[in-house]
């Protein structure tokens, strides 16, 4: 199977069915003040190529992802998490918008960032920005947890390399292969499972993490399918077709059928995550229950944010009126939405 662009033309539309809401959803009570602190840091420290790129990224309001995914964490950890999330989002944008030559040029910044996470001094502006976040988090994160976070980021980087091969056509991906690659490596879900421990102020031991693996796998798939359902417009029209909807349409499935399949997959995973959270909490101590509550917020918050994310939809219009059930129209620069009556 090649990675040729699936035929989704500007103006294509589909009906989005209503998704179940089984998980607790929150929003950080001090979002406005914390978003301001995050934006000040981003302007001062992240090395965007141009002022226009910086302002475009700020218009995406990525702090709102942290707000709905980590609504109960303390302010210092929120600041760490929002900065690190924006760092990862900005890197994702860098590699998505870059051609093959520019990706090669960006590789030194990626390599330096990985060395910074290993504890070494930075040698690039990207590494310098990340080193400040690393140093702040190190004061609050146990050494063993830092090691697991570093290992997860390295694995995420290897997954991104595999995605690059798929984009170039040197690796063929069917739907099952795509899901395996994304959930096991390049989605960064396993990075965020460690960060969820950090947000909750707990450190899970190896035995607990092993027991929670079925839950983590279900959460990873929920995160993947929810993201892909709402992000594929932006990715497709940017020329990036490594997305579940695009993988399905490339195989000959119609757009509406592909969207319906993703909706079904999100709904199925929502039920599974809810059931596994209940079962895990029944046998858990207070620290693990605190982690499970935080994990529930990450899964529900990620879906909630995907419904309104300016980076996905090309507009801030959905922040106060998220996309629910209705008709969605795909434009090259933005999403249009007509709610179901």
Automatic annotation (TrEMBL):
One Pfam family, short name: Terpene_syn_C_2
Domain of life: Bacteria
EC code(s) of this entry: 4.2.3.-
InterPro entries with a match to the protein in the record: Isoprenoid_synthase_dom_sf, Terpene_cyclase-like_2
GO molecular function: metal ion binding; terpene synthase activity
Keywords of this entry: Lyase, Magnesium, Metal-binding
Known cofactor(s): Mg(2+)
Protein family membership: Belongs to the terpene synthase family.
Annotated protein name in UniProt: Terpene synthase
């Amino acid at each position: 199977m090649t990675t040729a662009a699936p035929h989704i033309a500007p103006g294509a539309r589909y009906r989005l069915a209503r998704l179940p809401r089984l998980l607790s959803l929150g929003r950080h009570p001090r979002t406005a003040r914390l978003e301001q602190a995050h934006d000040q840091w981003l302007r001062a420290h992240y090395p965007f190529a141009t002022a226009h790129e910086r302002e475009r990224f700020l218009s995406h309001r990525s702090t709102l992802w942290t707000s709905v995914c980590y609504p109960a964490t303390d302010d210092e950890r929120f600041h760490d998490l929002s900065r690190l999330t924006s760092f990862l989002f900005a890197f994702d944008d860098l590699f998505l918008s870059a051609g093959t030559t520019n990706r090669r040029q960006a590789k030194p910044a990626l390599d330096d960032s990985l060395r910074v996470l290993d504890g070494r001094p930075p040698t690039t502006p990207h590494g310098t920005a990340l080193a400040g976040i690393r140093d702040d988090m190190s004061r609050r994160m146990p050494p063993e947890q830092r090691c697991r976070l570093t290992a997860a980021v390295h694995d995420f980087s290897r997954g991104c390399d595999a995605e690059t091969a798929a984009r170039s056509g040197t690796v063929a991906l069917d739907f099952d292969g795509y899901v395996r690659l994304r959930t096991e490596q390049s989605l960064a879900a396993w990075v965020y499972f460690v960060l969820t421990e950090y947000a909750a102020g707990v450190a899970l031991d190896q035995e607990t993490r092993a027991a929670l693996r079925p839950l983590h796998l279900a959460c990873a798939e929920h995160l993947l399918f929810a993201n892909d359902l709402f992000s594929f417009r932006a990715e497709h029209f940017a020329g990036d077709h490594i997305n579940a909807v695009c993988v399905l349409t490339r195989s000959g499935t119609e757009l509406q059928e592909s969207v319906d399949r993703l909706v079904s997959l999100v709904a199925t995973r929502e039920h599974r995550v809810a059931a596994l959270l209940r079962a895990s909490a029944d046998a858990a101590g207070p620290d693990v229950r605190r982690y499970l509550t935080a994990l529930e917020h990450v899964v529900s918050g990620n879906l909630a944010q995907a419904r309104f994310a300016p980076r996905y939809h090309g507009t801030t219009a959905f922040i106060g009126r998220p996309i629910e059930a209705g008709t969605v129209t795909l434009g090259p620069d933005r999403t249009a939405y007509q709610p179901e009556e």
